[in-house]
Every structure is written in C-alpha cells, then in structure tokens.
Amino acid sequence: MASSRSSSRYRSRSRGPSPIRTRHSYLGESEDAVDPDEAAQTNHAFTEGRVAVITGAGSLNGIGFAAAKELATYGMKLVLVDINEAELAEAVKQIEEKVGKGNVLGVPTDVSKIEACKALFEKVYDTFGEVSVLMNNAGIGPYGGAYTNLDNWHKVLDTNLYGVVNMVHTFTQAMMSQENPAVIINTGSKQGITNPPGNAAYNVSKAGVKVLTENLAWEFRQANAKVTAHLFVPGWVHTGLTGARTKDKPDGAWTATQTAQYMLERVKEGKFYIICPDNETTPEMDKLRIMWGAEDVALGRPALSRWHPEYKALFEEYMRDNLAASSSLAPP
Ligand SMILES: NC(=O)c1ccc[n+]([C@@H]2O[C@H](COP(=O)([O-])OP(=O)(O)OC[C@H]3O[C@@H](n4cnc5c(N)ncnc54)[C@H](O)[C@@H]3O)[C@@H](O)[C@H]2O)c1
C-alpha cells in the first residue's frame, strides 16, 4: 500500500499546474482563400470520362458510396472497392443504373493486404488506363483501449492506417506519371486531431492518416507533381459505421451525401484540410477545439485537458467567450 507521503505527492502531481487561460482572436481570420492554379488542377481531375477509385464504397449508407453517386453525376468512370462483396455488388448495380455498365468496375478488395491492393491496381489500369481521383476511405471502428483489446488494435490499424499506406504505395507512382492532374483524398477523422478519449486504437489510426497525408502533400509539392493530397475529415455522419443500418438519423448528424458534397466542393477548390461540420458542431467550434488540443502541447497542460475535471469549467468558458467574440465579428 502506498505511504501517505507518496500518495499525497501523487495527488499533487496528478493535479498538474494551474489551468492556463488562453484567448483567441483568430476566429475571424482565415487562410481559406482559393488558389486559382490549384483549383484548376484539382478540377481537371474531376472531369467527364476520368477515373475515380473509392475504397469502402460498398456501404449503401456510407460516405464512399455517397461520393461515388456524386462523381457519377460528373460523368466520371468509377471503381468501387470494398471488402464486403455482397454490399459491393448492390452498390455497383446502383451506380451502373446511373452511368452504364462499361463505366463502373466493382473490385472486392481487402485494403489491409498489400497483395490485394496490387491486384486491384492491375485491374484498374488494365480496364481504364488511369486514375484521376483516389479516395482512400475504407474504415472500421472496433474498440481498442490504450492497454486493452490488442486484437482490435491490429484490425483497426491494418484497415484504417495500413489500408491507406498500402493504397498510396501502390497507386502513387503511376498517378504521378500520368499526363493529367490527379488527386488523392484520404479519409481521416476529428478523432485523429482532437483525440477525444474513448477508442484509442481508432484515434491512433486516424492521427496516422493525418500525418501520412500531410507528408504526402509535402512530397508532392517538393516533386512539383501534378498530384495533390487532401485530408478529408468528416464530422458526425449517419452511416454504417455509426448505426445507419439499424437506427434513424439523429438530428445532430449529417447525411453521407451532405458530407461527400461538402468534401468534393473543397477538394475542387484545392483545399488540403477539409474539416466538415455537422448539425451539432460548427466550423468555429472545430477551430477552437483544435486550438485547445494544440495548446495542451504548447502550454504543457495535462494530456487531453479538455476532459480533465479541473479544466472542464475553463474549457467551457474558453468556448463560450470565443464563440461569443466570433459571432460579434460576423457580418449582420
Ligand atoms: N460516420 C462518421 O461519423 C465518420 C466520422 C469520421 C470519419 N469517418 C470515416 O469515414 C470513412 C467511411 O466510413 P463510413 O462512416 O461511411 O462507414 P461505413 O461502415 O458505412 O463504410 C465503411 C466501408 O468500409 C468497408 N471496409 C471495411 N474494412 C475494409 C477493408 N479492409 N477493405 C476494404 N473495405 C473495407 C466496409 O465494408 C464499409 O463498406 C471511414 O474511414 C471512417 O472512419 C466516419
């Protein structure tokens, strides 16, 4: 049993330093201006007759299938990829009805397996000869605590992170060698940025997708490539992953179609970070939460201080004050 001396030392250390109050004036500011060259380049990737490959596109309630339906309206050729063969077959059938049989390919693939990604690559290039939009979107969410459920850690990292790594390693060189511009869109999550406690394995996988995609964008910039990378961060979306097969959409969630449309508009403008709102979380709330998390590191606050009992009131005050300040900056 710990001595009273050591337990009181533990108590004072666990409390950490006094909460640090921060103020922000950046909410009225934005780097969101569109670069016309970047926008022209990314727009070209979405033109009629070009080819989009979407992983995790088999779920009829999912974001990947919603993106496929949108891209079908652009007259693009579509490659739908999913591990679930039965759902994929139905998804392909529905897209074929929109764009015709010759313009859709369904390829059952487990993206966590590099050999499967290579076989997919061969099939896509044999059939359509190029890829202008690669959307790495397949994802799963079984629970992995920080020190529990090791099997789930492997499953989640193999799909959510290695699935993206495998696809990027398999497709990037060929996409860079193409004559025309192309884009790679990787689906991350706010859980990989603000790291809300609850599913450490999922958060780690999505933090990895963020870091990978940032590095990919930098490498494309260094290489003066005609390929751009984009980090797509959905908000709360009513999909297979969040219970759409059994429940009605909660008021706070967005639909997959809303989310896919929001994402595509911004990729076409050349944006790298695409942080989607939902019916509960506004872009201003996201900005403040992201800044608070970054300041945990910069200011040396306790890990995940947003969920620390001694910081709860301060975090709420920070959100309230800054949201009030930002609404006073908004045009009437
Ligand atoms: N729904 C949300 O609120 C939300 C929020 C943030 C991020 N995301 C991310 O969005 C992406 C799409 O998920 P969704 O919400 O549309 O869920 P979804 O379950 O409807 O779709 C995910 C699809 O990925 C497929 N898949 C799973 N493992 C695979 C593998 N190894 N190989 C190929 N396909 C595989 C599934 O079969 C499914 O069709 C995921 O990366 C998810 O983490 C979702």
UniProtKB/TrEMBL annotation:
Residues 1-38 are annotated as: Disordered. InterPro entries: NAD(P)-bd_dom_sf (IPR036291), Sc_DH/Rdtase_CS (IPR020904), SDR_fam (IPR002347). Pfam families: adh_short. GO terms for molecular function: oxidoreductase activity, acting on NAD(P)H, oxygen as acceptor; oxidoreductase activity, acting on the CH-OH group of donors, NAD or NADP as acceptor. The keyword Iron does not apply. The keyword Oxidoreductase applies. Keywords: NADP, Oxidoreductase. CDD domains: SDR_c. Residues 29-38 have a biased composition (Acidic residues). Belongs to the short-chain dehydrogenases/reductases (SDR) family. PANTHER family: BENZIL REDUCTASE, SHORT CHAIN DEHYDROGENASE_REDUCTASE (AFU_ORTHOLOGUE AFUA_2G00830). This is NAD(P)-binding protein. It comes from Calocera cornea HHB12733. The lineage of its organism: Eukaryota, Fungi, Dikarya, Basidiomycota, Agaricomycotina.
